[in-house]
Structure formats: structure tokens, C-alpha cells
TrEMBL record:
GO biological process: inner dynein arm assembly; motile cilium assembly; outer dynein arm assembly
Gene assigned in the entry: Zmynd10
Organism name: Bucorvus abyssinicus
PANTHER family linked to this entry: ZINC FINGER MYND DOMAIN CONTAINING PROTEIN 10, ZINC FINGER MYND DOMAIN-CONTAINING PROTEIN 10
Name recorded for this polypeptide: ZMY10 protein
Cellular component terms (Gene Ontology): centriolar satellite; cytoplasm
Length: 387
């Protein structure tokens, strides 16, 4: 029950962040998250759910005697990761949030790297985007399908979070840059994303792109238009390659250099018209092609390492099956009464009244613009100050 209450709180925070961002009033929420040091807590929760998905969820799907009355409780755990990464994507735009993550920023970078690696691996195996007819699935299979769909969207959110972290490379600890450039070689991973572009594909002779949670057919005249996701990759590359500190630390060896020079084929005039900063990138790559950069200095430094992932694995190694069986018995086999109660709480969380309570602005009268207290009972959209 405590976890469910926490999930509801995260869900409400997520909705509040989205509503605040839509009207440009995120300052209060970001200040509270920084003041109460909640960003490391959210990152820890994010990695906990990720490990649960890798270690516990497959065991649940394999248990033959597990025939849940409802898969709703398991879906909520899967959805928890999506809620947290969505909240982080909304608030990580701000420098103060990045800095308040403290040492856990390394764990978040590792998390984003895992998601982008998965995204790159999946992009090489492109089949149908949306099946023509969905077969009737038994619950564990249905959950696995939902988990895979959600994993793709979570990975795209992780891309945005990573880009916001690269915006702040100058003010983050030295270990952050070392981990991004040397440990994970993020510039080469981002080149792979530019090359394979997992959020677009051809299907039946039509170009489809993924944006705002859905795949849509791109009209012929918009095929060269840059999407938000394309922009995130290019901006992350600009931050990592053109910063003097990054250039000093990155190792431009034969492999890295050949990978980066692949970008020249994508830097067309049409693309640079949409993102003028890419002119700098083109200039940098032209210079890189004809020079041999000096190898990075091997400084003797004490490097910080991420701890959340390793701590959770070390604490629970060898216990995964026992944990899964315990959760089946005590958490994922609720009674009819418990299911009804949770369904009511869930409905309340997503009710219109709740969203209005979370909205940063009070509704205004449709006629005079004064603060309104009465909503139209017919359309439920318009507000008025009097009856």
C-alpha cells in the first residue's frame, strides 16, 4: 500500500509538471524538488523498477501457477518507470535540477546509456511497426507486449534526459564527462542513432515517424523536416563535440574518428537551415578529417562510480525467484475488494477535478476573464464566474 501511495504521488507530480510546463510555470516544482533533494530519490526509484523489469518480471511470466485475476497491479509497476522518466524529462531542462542530482547523475547517465544501446540494437531489426491484427493474448504475453511498447517510449525519453545533461557539461563534476566520453563513448552511440534513426521507418512504401506517443505517416513534402527526436540527437552531439573541455578529454582515435566522419553525409543544406548551429559541426568535422588530434592527457584522477545499480544487485543476487514468488503471493494476487479499491483510487488520480487542482493557474471566466468557480455542466470545458 505504501508503494501504491508513492506511485500515486509520482503520477500527480508528473501531471503537475506537464501542466506547469505547458504554461511556462515550472519554477515552483523545480524549486521544491531541489529543496527537498528528491531528484536522487527519483533516480534510485527509476533504477529499482528497471532492475525489477530485468530480474523479476521474466520470472513472473514463466510461473505456470500464476494466473492473476487482473494484470493491473503488474502494469502499474511497469508504468511507474515511464512516469518517473517522463517527470525527469520535464524538469531536467533546468540547470539546478541537474546539479541537485549530485552523485546519482552518474547512475542516470548509465541508465540512459543502457536505454540508447537498446534503442540502437532494436533499430537494426525493423519489421512492421503496427501489426494489422492483434491476436488475443493470454495475460503474461499481453504484459510482455505492453512492456516492449513502453520500453521503446521510455528509451526516447531517456534520449531527451541525456541531451539535457549534455547541456550542463560545464557545471557538472569531472567524473560525469569522463563517464560520458571515455567509459560509454556516447558520441559514437549518438552517431549510430543518427544513422539508423529508430523513430522512423518505411512501411508499404510510406515513411512513418514516431512522435508524441504515436506512429504517423509523413506527407512527402515533410520528409526532410527534422523531428524533435532528431534535434535532441544533434544537440547532444553539438554539446559533446564542440565544447573545449570535451575535445580535450575525448580520444579521437582511428575508430572514433571514422565513426564521427559518417555525420558529414547527413549534414545537408536543408538540415542546417533547420538547425543553424550545425554549420559549426560541419566546420569541426572538415577540420577533423584533415588533422590528427593529439591524444587526451592521461590525468591521474580519482573517479566516482555509480552505486545504485550495483548496490541493488549485490543486495538481492540469488533471491530473484524467491522475491518473485513472494510478490505473486502478497502483491500481484489481490482480492476483488482490493482491486475495486485500487481502481477507485486510480480513477480519482486521473479525474478532471484532480487535474484542475494540480493546474498552476486557476480557471478564468469565458466572458469577463475573472477567476471562475463554475464549470459548464454540458461541455465540461468552459468556465464562468457566476451561474
Amino acid at each position: 500500500r505504501r508503494w501504491l501511495r508513492q506511485h500515486e504521488c509520482v503520477e500527480k507530480l508528473n501531471m503537475h509538471a506537464i501542466l506547469s510546463a505547458s504554461v511556462g510555470q515550472e519554477q515552483l516544482l523545480t524549486e521544491l524538488l531541489v529543496t527537498y533533494a528528491k531528484i536522487p530519490v527519483l533516480i534510485g526509484e527509476l533504477i529499482s523498477v528497471e532492475i525489477w523489469k530485468h530480474k523479476i518480471f521474466p520470472v513472473l511470466c514463466r510461473l505456470e501457477d500464476f494466473k492473476p485475476r487482473s494484470t493491473f497491479p503488474i502494469y502499474m509497476v511497469l508504468h511507474h518507470e515511464a512516469s518517473i522518466i517522463n517527470l525527469l524529462e520535464t524538469v531536467f531542462f533546468y540547470k539546478e535540477i541537474c546539479e541537485s542530482a549530485q552523485d546519482s547523475i552518474l547512475d542516470l547517465i548509465d541508465y540512459c546509456h543502457r536505454k540508447l544501446t537498446l534503442l540502437t540494437a532494436r533499430s537494426t531489426n525493423r519489421q512492421t511497426v503496427t501489426p494489422v491484427e492483434i491476436p488475443v493474448l493470454v495475460p503474461p504475453q499481453e504484459l510482455q507486449e505492453q512492456a516492449e511498447t513502453m520500453e521503446f517510449e521510455i528509451s526516447l525519453k531517456a534520449l531527451s534526459v541525456l541531451r539535457f545533461i549534455t547541456d550542463q557539461v560545464e557545471s557538472l563534476p569531472l567524473s560525469v564527462l569522463t563517464r560520458m566520453l571515455r567509459t560509454h563513448n556516447l558520441p559514437c552511440l549518438l552517431v549510430e542513432l543518427v544513422e539508423h534513426c529508430p523513430w522512423s521507418c518505411w512501411e508499404a512504401g510510406k515513411l512513418k515517424k514516431f512522435e508524441n506517443g504515436t506512429w504517423y505517416v509523413v506527407p512527402p513534402e515533410d520528409r526532410v523536416k527534422m523531428t524533435k527526436l532528431d534535434g535532441q540527437v544533434w544537440l547532444a552531439l553539438l554539446n559533446l563535440l564542440l565544447s573545449p573541455e570535451c575535445q580535450r578529454k575525448y580520444h579521437f582515435d582511428g575508430f572514433n574518428k571514422s565513426q564521427l566522419l559518417k555525420l558529414r553525409a547527413f549534414l545537408t543544406d536543408v538540415l542546417m537551415d533547420q538547425l543553424p548551429n550545425l554549420v559549426e559541426m560541419q566546420r569541426f568535422l572538415s577540420h577533423l578529417a584533415v588533422t590528427e588530434p593529439a591524444p587526451p592527457k592521461k590525468d591521474l584522477i580519482l573517479e566516482q562510480v555509480p552505486v545504485i545499480w550495483d548496490h541493488i544487485l549485490k543486495k538481492n543476487t540469488g533471491k530473484w525467484e524467491a522475491i518473485a514468488k513472494h510478490q505473486v503471493k502478497h502483491i500481484f494476487s489481490p482480492t476483488e475488494e482490493e482491486l475495486k479499491l485500487q481502481a477507485c483510487r486510480w480513477a480519482q488520480t486521473y479525474s478532471l477535478d484532480m487535474m484542475e487542482a494540480l493546474a498552476p493557474d486557476k480557471p478564468r471566466c469565458r466572458v469577463c476573464g475573472a477567476e471562475a468557480a463554475k464549470r459548464c455542466s454540458r461541455c465540461r470545458n468552459e468556465w464562468y464566474c457566476t451561474r
